[in-house]
Amino acid sequence: MEFGDVLRRRKMVRTFESGQVDPSIVERILRHGQRAPSAGYSQGFEFLLLEGPDQTARFWEAATADEPVLQGVRAAPIIVIPFASKDVYLDRYAEEDKKWEDRDESRWPVPYWYIDAAFASMLILLSAVNEGLGALFFGLHPPTIPRVKETFGVPDGWDPIGAIAIGHPSGEDPVRSSAHTRRRKQFQEVVHRGHW
Ligand SMILES: Cc1cc2nc3c(=O)[nH]c(=O)nc-3n(C[C@H](O)[C@H](O)[C@H](O)COP(=O)(O)O)c2cc1C
């Protein structure tokens, strides 16, 4: 698929078919995710891959809070949870070539550990579209995060930045999301040429 087409077609999908995705396609998508840039090449992001109804059901059991989860999202056969580790970055930047031995977090203009995991997530979303699949990035409810981590044996120091559901999109996606109720900003509102 042309890169521009992939970009334009990328829309969050909230209604999936339950049919499995070829494991080689899943691996390709994750390998693309791994190609994300990272500050200092720290690579402080890793993915938890949940495949098939048993693993995804355990995820939903752990992740679901008061808000009901859309059935169409639950049907997705693949869930990828991108995790970020702040310590990986603090350790990397304390090395000889960076010299931030004090590990002072005020040195960081923004938390690059979350930025890089988000870059990787975007590559995953685009790669899913490129494979003819659909994907949804969604947030995890903070009170459920310890339960999700415990369920899947995630070590301390690794924070999920959200989760990505992947699968074959259903022909019909009846879910009305913010993208339906809000308009995309005008290009001129977003780009400030030469001066804000
Ligand atoms: C950081 C982030 C968190 C999001 N969380 C959710 C979520 O919890 N549930 C959901 O349905 N969509 C979620 N979305 C999807 C947005 O609603 C969606 O990207 C936006 O409405 C624009 O639509 P589009 O991505 O289809 O173009 C999230 C998107 C981002 C980037």
Tags for this model:
globular, NADH Oxidase, binds flavin mononucleotide, alpha+beta, 5 strands, single chain, 196 residues
Give your account of this protein's structure.
The protein contains nine helices and five strands, in the order ααβααβααβαββαα. With 196 residues, the protein is of the alpha+beta class. The protein is globular and about 55 Å long. The two termini are 36 Å apart. 28% of the residues are buried. The site of flavin mononucleotide (FMN) has 10 residues, from strand 3 and helix 8.
Short description:
The protein has 196 residues and is of the alpha+beta class. The protein has one domain: 3-Layer(aba) Sandwich (NADH Oxidase), CATH 3.40.109. 39% of the residues lie in helices and 13% in strands.
Tell me the layout of helices and strands.
Blueprint: H1 3-9, H2 23-34, E1 45-51, H3 52-63, H4 71-74, E2 78-84, H5 86-93, H6 112-130, E3 134-138, H7 145-151, E4 159-160, E5 163-167, H8 178-181, H9 187-190
Helix pairs in contact: 1-6, 2-6, 3-7
The structure holds flavin mononucleotide.
Residues 11-12, 14, 137-139, 162, 177-179 line the site of flavin mononucleotide.
Question: How helix-rich are the residues, as a percent range?
Answer: 25-40%
Give the mean pLDDT: 96
Helix/strand/pairing category = alpha+beta
Q: The CATH topology, please?
A: NADH Oxidase
SSE order: HHEHHEHHEHEEHH
For the sheet with most strands, the description reads:
5 strands, antiparallel
